Amino acid sequence: MAARIGIITVSDTRTADNDLSGATARETLVGLGFTSFESRIVRDEVEEIQSAILELCETCHAVFTTGGTGFAPRDVTPEATAPLLEKRADSLCELMRLRGMGQTSFSHLSRGIAGVCRGALVVNLPGSPKAVLQGIRAIGHLIAPIVENLFEGHCPANEC
C-alpha cells in the first residue's frame, strides 16, 4: 500500500524555508518507507488547524500535526483536533510520551491527541524537531497496520 501522508506545521512564525519540524516529520516518515506527502503550514488558530486537517483527511491516509501541543496560551492544536475525531487513539500518544521519557522528563508536557477523522489517522506531535523524531519513532511500527486497517475497502482519492 502506498499511503499518502499529510504534515501540518502549526506555528505563527514558521515558513516553508524554516519549518524544521515538518521537515523532520517528512524525513523520519521517509525512513519508514513512506514516499507520498502533502504539507501545510498554518497559524496557531483553531479554525486554520481544523481546516487543514479536514482538507488533508480527504486526500491522505494519515495526517501528522507538529506544534501547538504545549501549555502556552496559543497552543490549541489538541483543542482544534478533538472535535474532528470520530474515534480516539489515546494509546498512540501515551506510547509517544512514555518512550519520550527515556530522552527527556518533559515528554509528558505534550498534550497531543490522536484518532480517526474522516477515515484517516490523525496524530498531534510536539513542535520541536527532536520531539517529532522521537514521537514518530515511537509509533512508526504501528502506522502502516493502522492505515491498512482503516482503508480496507476504501481509500481517499482511490489511491490504494
Question: Could you describe the 3D structure shown?
Answer:
The chain is of the alpha/beta class and 160 residues long. The chain has helices at 20-31, 46-57, 77-81, 90-100, 129-150; strands at residues 4-10, 36-42, 62-66, 87-88, 114-117, 120-125. It has a six-stranded mixed β-sheet with strand order 2-1-3-6-5-4, with helices on both faces. The protein is globular. It starts with a strand and ends in a 10-residue tail after the last helix.
Q: What key attributes describe this structure?
A:
160 residues, 39% helix, alpha/beta, 6-stranded mixed β-sheet, 6 strands
Compute the number of strand runs.
6
SSE order, one letter for each helix or strand: EHEHEHEHEEH
Provide the structure class: alpha/beta
Estimated radius of gyration: 14 Å
Determine the N-to-C terminus distance. 6 Å
Give a short account of the largest sheet: 6 strands, mixed
Low-confidence stretches: none
The best one-word shape is globular
- DSSP strand content: 15-25%
Main β-sheet, spatial strand arrangement: 2-1-3-6-5-4
Mean pLDDT: 93
Helix proportion: 25-40%
Number of contiguous helices? 5
